[in-house]
Each structure stands twice: as C-alpha cells, then as structure tokens.
Amino acid sequence: MWAGGRCEITEPLRLGEPAERISSLGTVTAKQGRTGEMLFVTERREFRQHGRTCLVEEQDIVYRSGRSAGEHPAGIDESAFPDTDAPWQLPLRADPALLFRFSALTANAHRIHYDSPYCQGEEGYPGLVVHGPLLALLMLELARRHAPQRRLRSLSYRLRRPVFAGERLLACGTRVDDRAELRIATHREERHATAEVTFA
Q: For residue 94, what is the enclosing H or E element?
C-alpha cells in the first residue's frame, strides 16, 4: 500500500528533451502494527536532463502480512457530503470506471482498486479502494488551480485512511505564505490524506 511520499523540484523537466531516471532503494524497515507485521520501503527516483538533477521523488510503500484487521466502515454511504469551510475545495466521487482507468494508466495491478469480490472477500474492505496516488494528485490539483502563477518547489504527503469508491470526497486546502496545507476529507474523516506544497 502507498503510505506517502515526497517530491523536490529543482527545475522543471522540459518536454521533448531526453531525460534519465535513476531508481534506487532507500530504507527498509520491519514493524509490528495492530494489523500484523509490516514492511516499510522507501523507493527513490531521480530525474535528470543534460546531466542536471531536475526532480527527486521518494515513495513510501507498506507491505503487510495477511488480511487487514483495520477499522473500516461496514458499508459505504454514497449520499453523505464532507463538511468544511476551507477556502480551496475540489470535490470528487470516484467510481469503479475511474479507478480501473487510473490502475491502467499507472500500471497498478493491485486488485483492491478494480475487483470488488476480491477487495471485500479477501482484503476485508467494504468496497473498492481509491488509489493513494490519485488522492495525492487531487490535492496537488488544488494548488495548480488556485495558485497557477506559482511554480511548485516541493510536495510532501501522507496517506492515513482509505477512501472507497462511491464516497463523496473533497480535496481541501489553505494557502499560508509560500506554502499550502492540503487534505482529503469525507463525511466520516477530515484527514484521509494530508499534504503540504511549497512554492518557489
């Protein structure tokens, strides 16, 4: 499962020019949690053009043993709306077709995003799980829409609790000086995911 990540942008990647990606394995840590044994892995990617590092991305991935014993709702309420007064807002209601397309776009073959019987019967979720990277992109879209003239310097995000297909979710944000604080909310949780972007 995706747990979070960071991205530092030194300079924008230029379209139409050759780029080099260098991937490496960062830290690997085993932990015991409420749901059993977990392995936390950090993957690092550097993107270079013309010998210069333009962007560095780190992704935190969690591998867990066995079925989830996490606390998930018994069912999904598709009619309830999140309640927030955040100045930046962007709603989304992810349906199975969107999750399937995002899985294909990102080459993500994890069945929790497109196979309902597996997701419920084997993994113990009440419905299809919305991709963590999709939530991160939704929060990032807030910054793009509300501060289009500002260039992004960094993004840091953490995925806390799953969101399920059919739920009404809301990306919320507030600008604070040269940064913005972002989050994903549903009617049952104010902070499914959190993020901070800084502007150059």
A: none
